Amino acid sequence: MLCLRGAARWFGRHRVFSGLDFDVPTGTRLLVTGGNGSGKTTLLRCLAGTLSLTSGAALVDGHPAGSPAARRALGVCLNPEQGLYGSLSGRDNLLLAARLRLPAAAARRMVARVEDEFEIGPFARVPVQRCSAGMRARVTIARSLLADPAALVLDEPGRSLDERARNLLWAALDRRPQLACVVVSHQSEDQSRCGRTLTFPVRR
């Protein structure tokens, strides 16, 4: 479902990673760990198609990363506390994103579903600029699951979440056992939730 072949990314003369090959099949979770600045977020951006590889290929469900077909198949959360419209409520942010992929009635049903999963209801109508970092993170993570993507990339999803919210996150992923997930995390407890681990830096 998620695939890298001979992947390399350089910034000028700085090599982030090279010769990277892996597959994340349907139903598999890959945990990516490593120190700050080691290239973990760069890897996710290449899978999401917001950053191009220097060489090699990144595929989502067989489609080049960043292509329309790949974007439809992939849920993305790279900045759990950011990327929302501050003047809009959490619900309106979710509805706006859902309507980009779904008809109106289906969008409302999907938003209601993820609001329930992440217990967003109590603050759903509050402008997100007035919400805590943890509240905003719940909304952005929930947004990545709209339209039932086949694959998911999450960058430090639990960094602003309390224990209750982290449990809600993993419960939501458990309800979607078919997802192919790549999760960047520094939290050791997340390793037990993932079947495989990739440690950065990867330089060959």
Shape: globular
Helix-strand makeup class: alpha/beta
Q: What portion of the residues fall into strands of 2 or more residues? A: 25-35%
Mean pLDDT: 94
**How many alpha or pi helices?**
6
Rg (CA only): 17 Å
- Give the strand order of the largest sheet, numbering strands 1, 2, ... along the chain: 6-7-8-3-9
Order of helices and strands: EEEHEEHEHHHEHEE
Q: What's the β-strand tally?
A: 9
Largest sheet: 5 strands, parallel
User: Judging by the overall fold, what is the CATH architecture?
Assistant: 3-Layer(aba) Sandwich
CATH fold field value: Rossmann fold
Provide a short characterization of the protein structure.
The chain has 6 helices and 9 strands, in the order βββαββαβαααβαββ. It is α/β, with parallel strands linked by helices.
How would you explain this protein's 3D organization?
- With 204 residues, this protein is α/β, with parallel strands linked by helices.
- It has one domain: P-loop containing nucleotide triphosphate hydrolases (Rossmann fold, 3-Layer(aba) Sandwich), CATH 3.40.50.
- It contains 6 helices and 9 strands.
- Strands 6-7-8-3-9 form a 5-stranded parallel β-sheet, sandwiched between helices. A 4-stranded antiparallel β-sheet has the order 2-1-4-5.
- Strand 1 and strand 2 form a beta hairpin.
- Helix 3 runs parallel beside helix 5.
- The longest helix is centred in the middle third of the chain and has 14 residues.
- The radius of gyration is 17 Å and the shape is globular.
- The protein starts with a strand and ends with a strand.
- The model has no long low-confidence stretch (mean pLDDT 94).
